[in-house]
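Quick review question:
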């Protein structure tokens, strides 16, 4: 099974943009951390609907794009925690 068949090519770009927006939101003091995945999900869905039209596929692609952005951030965060713990 090839996972790339489930993700539209445009969603790769959306994921990168959402990742960058998430980094900015993380630095914003008035936005709680727990709300960032929800904000990115809404932005991803709206962006994909604008790009692909209003259909179930666009909604799913928006959710996948936001999920990839949050997942990549968490991989980096957990990796740095492990690296810091191993260096002590």
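Suggested answer, residue by residue:
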């Amino acid at each position: 099974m090839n996972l790339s068949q489930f993700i539209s090519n445009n969603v790769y770009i959306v994921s990168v943009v959402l990742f960058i927006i998430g980094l900015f939101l993380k630095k914003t003091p008035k936005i709680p951390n727990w709300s960032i995945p929800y904000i990115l999900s809404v932005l991803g869905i709206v962006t994909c609907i604008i790009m692909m039209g209003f259909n179930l596929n666009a909604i799913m692609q928006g959710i996948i794009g936001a999920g990839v952005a949050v997942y990549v951030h968490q991989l980096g965060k957990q990796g740095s925690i492990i690296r810091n713990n191993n260096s002590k």
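Why it works: The chain has a mean pLDDT of 88. The chain is about 75% helix and 0% strand.
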